[in-house]
Structures are given as C-alpha cells and as structure tokens.
Design goal:
Layout: H1 13-19, H2 24-33, E1 35-36, E2 52-56, H3 60-71, E3 75-79, E4 95-97, H4 99-103, E5 108-111, E6 132-135, H5 149-156, E7 161-164, H6 171-176, E8 184-189, H7 192-204, E9 208-211, H8 218-223, H9 233-262, H10 273-304, H11 313-320, H12 322-353, H13 355-370, H14 379-404, H15 408-412, H16 416-442, H17 459-463, H18 465-477, H19 480-490
Parallel strand pairs: 2-3, 2-5, 3-4, 5-6, 6-7, 8-9
Antiparallel strand pairs: 1-4, 7-8
Helix pairs in contact: 9-10, 10-12, 10-16, 10-18, 12-13, 12-14, 14-16
C-alpha cells in the first residue's frame, strides 16, 4: 500500500512546503493522504502555482469544473474529506488530497460544496488567509438564508478573499464548453485583484466574465439560477389567457348554442374541432402582438421627433419578449396544422363506427339518386378552396423559417442585415399571408346573418381585428414620406435641432 500511494515529494514544490517542519510520522501521514490519479504524472513536474488551482468538492459540478480546467492547461488539485475513495470518480490527470494539504497547493480555490458543509473551512482559516475563494454555491429557493452564501463564507474565513462566481453554470455546460446561452459568468467581490484572477481563469476557459461589483451583489447572483423562464412569463400568460377566453367563447357559440336551440349534443367536437379553432386564432393574435410593439415604437419616435428618449417601461418589456411571443405563436400554428390533418381521419372513423352518421350519408346519397340530382362543379368555390389552402401552407412555411432563424446557432451565421430582413420583412409577410388565409376562410360568411349566433361574431372575425390594424399601420410606415422621416430620426436627426439656440448646443466642457 505504501508503494501505491507514494508521491514524489522532493520534486514538487508544494509537497516540499508541506513537508518542511513535519515530523516523520506527520510526513508519512501526509504521504498516505496524497494520491496521484495518473501514473504518468510521477515523471512530469507540477505546473507553477500561478497555473495550479484547487477545487474543494468532488461532486458533479466540482468534477466538471476540474475537467474543464485540465483541458485549459491548469494543474488541478481536488480537496476531499475522503481522498482515497473519491479518486476513481475524478478526471484523469488531477490530484486529490485532503482539505488541509490541498488548500496549500494553490492560491485560487473553487468552493464547489453546499453552504451546509462550509464548517470544514473553519479549522483551515489560517491556511486560507490571503487565498482567493470562489464560491460556486446556490440555494434551493430565494431568501433561504438571512445573508448570501458568499457573505457567509467570508464571515467564516475572514482572512481570505471571497469571490462569487461560476454559480450560473451547470455541470453540463462546463463539460460541453461555453455556448451562446451560457457563455457569460457573473462575478462579484471586494478585492479587485481577486476578481481579476477569477476573470483570467474564466476567460481562459472560454467564458465571458462580467464584474457585477462588490460582494453585496452576491445574493442577486445566487438568485439568477432560481429564475424560471423570466422572459417567457408574460408571453405564457398572454397565450394562456387568450386560449382560455376564446375556448369558452367558442364553447358557448357552438356547443352550448346547439344544445339550447336544437337540443343537439355535439360536445364531442370540443377535443378536436373546437381546439382547431382556438389554436389558429391565438396564433394569429400572438403573431400580431409580436410585431405591434415595433410599429408603436416607430410612431412614438415619429411623434417625438427624436430617438434619444427612452420608451415607456411597458413598451420596453413588450419588445424584449417578442421572440418568445413569436415562438409560442409558431407552436399554436403547428398544433393547428396537426389538428387539420387529424380531422379527416377522425371523420372517416366516425363514419365507420357511428350508425347515425352512416345512416345520414346513405340517406343523403339515396335521396340524390331518387331526385336525379348531381352536384355541379363550381369554379369559384374551387379557386377559393385552393387559395385558402395555398396561403395557409405558405404562411406556415414562413412561420417555420422565422422560428429557425431564432435559433442562436443560426443567428450567429447571419449578418445583422440578413437577420433583420428575415425577422422584419419576412415576418410582416408571414402576418400578411396568415391574415389573408383567415379572410379567405370567412369568405362570404361575413355578411350572413346565420354566422352571428346569439348576435355574436365568430372567433375568426375577432382575431382579424389586431393583425389588420398592425398591417395598416405598417403600410403607413413604409410610405416614402414617413419612411424617410423615420430613417433620418434613427440616424440621429432631431426635430427642431436646427432652430435651437447655438449657445444651447455648446459642449458643457470646452
């Protein structure tokens, strides 16, 4: 066993420091506590202390961070309460020591353990004096403790420089490298030098570190991972509210109306037919809500005559969630396509297994034969049906294109002009196609009195109001005179700037 856990103490700077001043018994205990995870590491000198980091914690996050550090060229020493039993789980090329020995092996130490286990750091307070401790911990809920975990860690080890950071990254993102969604690393701390050391490590790992200020910001950073779809909350509430409102509205107009006036029970239509009416209505309204704030912002700039005034908070918040509104709109459109494909299959099944429907089809066919009547082919109806279906297919195809260009990997491959062309010009074209598709669906039923059951308009008429308004406003914005003025405003021109007093335009500092 002594040969198995033997370490080259004389060739390693840190072990020389550890062994100086130790008795023979202490030195043998230190040897038994050390373990090299790679036999080849015995012949390779350890990296300098500036390129060596320590990780306290051998869980998923600690192991993933250690692996990422090794791939970046750092020497990694793990600190564990059971160094021998945890060695098989750690990445190849790292070393594992006890907490006391590992704390002296590097100046920068990552604390990848939960707050409940910080007590082991108290006996190491003297050894951690002057060290940089990076707190990676998070909580299960907001305001779980009276102070932030990083502040609590600083109180336990007052001589160390505590930096909060890397807590917004998951073990998966550390193993697979930074991507567009998790490239940023937020840090905070009291010491500028300590934060610079952490920023240097984050940059070498491929992340973008953002300094958020002093350690008092640690609670806010610890709340970041607890946020559940913050940009999706408003779009989800809008979609749920619209779905519920139109579902009950159509339920009253079709199912309840048929039962009250005709005594007919068509409640079976709720699951497919009624849902297939709700989905396109909500989809078209949410697509309109996706492009309405941009139109309103343009008119607001046109009214103010300048771009150097902030938009109202509600408009800012609305514009920030346009991507989520568009993706949810695409989801409802996709459900509409699925329901549309299922309805003919559902009808055939009902005809086969429902005696009533089979009897009605048979009776209708027999009556046509007895009366020697045939159904004449109507070219106008055929044009209407084909145009309605064609616009729906084209609109859904443009929907899918907008959704694809919203992916981060696709956005990075597009220039700003290309992205703006797809999301703005093709987006408004998508809205135009879907609106025309809905108008063709109504066709000649807009003026029919039988359409207004209980004097209420059908759902597809209601959903046409908002997209029609958006398209009309957009049509006004693209007229040459208005478009020219808005372009000048967005290039920095201000209304009335030429008539201002020259003294007012003088710089504050000559």
């Amino acid at each position: 066993m002594q040969k198995t856990f033997h370490c080259r103490i004389s060739t390693t700077e840190v072990f020389a420091c550890l062994c100086s001043g130790m008795t023979g018994q202490e030195r043998s205990e230190e040897k038994s506590e050390c373990m090299s995870l790679s036999p080849m590491m015995e012949a390779v000198p350890a990296p300098p202390e500036s390129e060596r980091v320590c990780v306290f914690g051998t869980g998923d996050l600690g192991r993933s961070l250690g692996l990422r550090l090794l791939q970046a060229g750092y020497g990694v020493v793990f600190g564990s309460r059971r160094p021998h039993s945890s060695s098989s789980l750690l990445p190849h090329g790292a070393q594992v020591l006890g907490h006391a020995a590992a704390s002296q092996s590097a100046h920068l130490i990552f604390i990848a353990v939960q707050r409940e286990h910080y007590d082991f750091l108290v006996p190491l307070a003297n050894q951690l004096k002057g060290k940089v401790l990076v707190d990676l911990s998070n909580n299960l809920r907001k305001n779980q403790y009276p102070e932030a975990n990083a502040e609590y860690l600083q109180s336990l080890v007052p001589g160390a420089e505590v930096v909060k950071g890397f807590n917004t990254l998951s073990a998966w993102s550390l193993q697979n490298g930074p991507s567009d969604a998790n490239r940023q690393v937020y840090i905070c701390g009291e010491s500028v030098e300590a934060k610079q050391a952490v920023i240097a490590v984050a940059t070498k790992l491929g992340f973008s570190a953002l300094d958020q200020g002093f350690l008092s910001v640690a609670r806010e950073l610890e709340d970041f991972p607890l946020r559940l779809f913050p940009q999706w909350r408003l779009p989800l509430r809008i979609s749920i509210g619209l779905s519920a409102a139109f579902f009950f509205y159509l339920l009253v107009r079709y199912v309840i109306y048929a039962y009250v006036t005709q005594g007919e029970d068509i409640s079976f239509r709720i699951m497919v037919s009624l849902a297939n009416q709700v989905c396109p209505i909500v989809s078209l309204i949410m697509l309109s809500l996706c492009y309405l704030p941009g139109v309103l912002a343009s008119f607001l700039q046109l009214y103010r005559g300048t771009k150097y005034r902030r938009f109202p908070d509600w408009l800012d918040r609305w514009m920030l969630c346009r991507k989520q509104l568009g993706l949810l709109s695409l989801g409802f459109a996709f459900l509409h396509v699925l329901y549309t494909l299922i309805i003919p299959i559902r009808s055939k099944v009902l005809i086969l297994f429902s005696g009533t429907l089979m009897f009605w089809v048979t009776e209708h066919t027999v009556s046509l034969i007895r009366e020697n009547r045939t159904t004449m082919f109507d070219t106008t109806t055929a044009w209407h049906d084909d145009s309605y279906l064609s616009l729906g297919i084209l609109g859904f195809g443009m929907y899918v294109l907008l959704g694809i260009t919203s992916l981060p990997s696709v956005i990075n491959a597009l220039s700003w002009r290309e992205f703006s062309f797809v999301q703005s010009k093709l987006g408004h074209l998508t809205l135009l196609l879907c609106t025309a598709h809905t108008y063709l669906y109504g066709w000649n039923r807009f003026l029919s009195s039988s359409t207004y059951k209980w004097y209420t308009p059908p759902g597809y008429m209601l959903c046409l109001v908002l997209p029609s308004v958006v398209l009309l406003l957009k049509l006004l914005l693209i007229t040459p005179c208005v478009d020219r003025t808005i372009t000048r405003i967005r290039q920095g021109w201000e209304r009335g700037a030429d008539q201002r007093n020259p003294k007012d335009s003088q710089p504050l500092i000559p």
